[in-house]
Amino acid sequence: MALLRGQVVVLLLAVAAALGAAPPAAPKASTFCTGAQLTGKFAVVPNSAGAGNIVYALTLRNRSTSPCTIAGLPDVTLLGRSGQALPTHIRAALPNTLTSVLVHIAPGRWARATARFSPDVPGEGEPLYGRRCEPMAYKLTVRAPGGGKTLAPVTPPTPVCEHGQLQLSAYAAGR
Fold first, then answer.
1. Other C-beta atoms within 10 Å of 75: how many?
2. What is the distance between the alpha carbons of residues 111 and 107, in angstroms, rounded to a whole number?
3. What are the CA-CA distances from residue 7 to residues 18, 19, 96, 166, 172 (Å)?
4. Less Cβ crowding at N or C end of the chain, within 10 Å?
5. Contact criterion met (CB below 8 Å) for 58 and 41
């Protein structure tokens, strides 16, 4: 009986060693997303307005048939009704925190970032356009890390005060 137990232990050790010796499966390669692979939306987060700030969510969908990757803070520019660039100043929502996590987007899936800004409180020295601090933003250009860009409609259109300052979160997976 003692010999049988010893054989079982040896067998279990051999199986464990064989399993441990097998190389782990390599993750599927993913290249950085291009603008042509992505569609975007930049829309108000319901019930987020308060104390002179509002939050909009930037969602990017991989419309291609290949997975792709994005990382860090979104690289964006606000655009007016006719497509002219508006003042846009990006700041990290949480400075000095991890902002370069790779986000892999499978075909048909989404990545998301949020932007907090003031739509109605002018910054220091900010000119006024009628009753607004800045011209209305109707679109957002998102530069893709793999090259190119995609346009995201701004829903609803809005001015971005403090010279276009957007406090952006890093990209995260999901909607």
1. 15
2. 11
3. 16, 18, 56, 66, 50
4. N
5. yes
* Residue at 110 is within a domain: yes
Q: Domain total for the chain? A: 1
* 62-82 pLDDT, tens digit each: 999 999 999 989 999 999 999
Q: Which tokens belong to 65?
A: 């048939």
How many CB atoms lie under 10 A from the CB of residue 8?
10
Name the strand (E) or helix (H) holding 9: helix 2-21
Domain span at residue 110 reads: 30-173
pTM: 0.80
Task: Identify the CA nearest to 76 among candidates 145, 122, 135.
Answer: 145
Residue 66 corresponds to which tokens in the numbers above?
A: 């290949």
Residues in the chain: 175
